[in-house]
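Illustration: Asparagine--tRNA ligase, cytoplasmic.
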Amino acid sequence: AEDNERREKNLEEAKKIVIENDPSLPEAEAVKIHKLEAKRGQRVKVFGWVHRLRRQGKNLMFIVLRDGTGFLQSVLSDKLCQCYNGLVLSTESTVALYGTITPVPDGKQAPGGHELHCDFWELVGLAPAGGADNLLNEESDVDVQLNNRHMMIRGEIVSKILRVRSTVTQCFRDHFFSCGYYE
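Result:
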């Protein structure tokens, strides 16, 4: 009961923290994750789903974002992770992140070799707490997995299988078209 009361108090205090897009910064260009390498050093806007979420204390949060074209590690600090949306954020939520693409420091790793240092973000759609991991895990029945197929294909393994299947199908299609057949 004390933990719930403390959490409610923290959430009420977090509602007072307002984050705004700084108009003095250059306009952010909307970019897909697989095209970010060419945008290093520039301010960009990336839409996607929260794939992984890791909080470190009150002032630092790491988000691995997924948009269907790849994965991007993002760093949020100070007010960005102390606001109400930062406290209630969960995996599979849809967000828009604004910031500068910077190469990863030596000795560190991130998908694509770069990360997004955020200066502003927006919550587009909040997912239920726990995300897909609450619904789907290794112990889930096949019926549960099939009923939630839209969540399964967001995972890394199933999406890779579907990409391989697509490539194999395209190879067969190209072969038969080159031989003069029609589908």
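Reading the tokens back as a structure: Strands lie at 29-30, 43-56, 60-66, 71-77, 94-103, 114-125.
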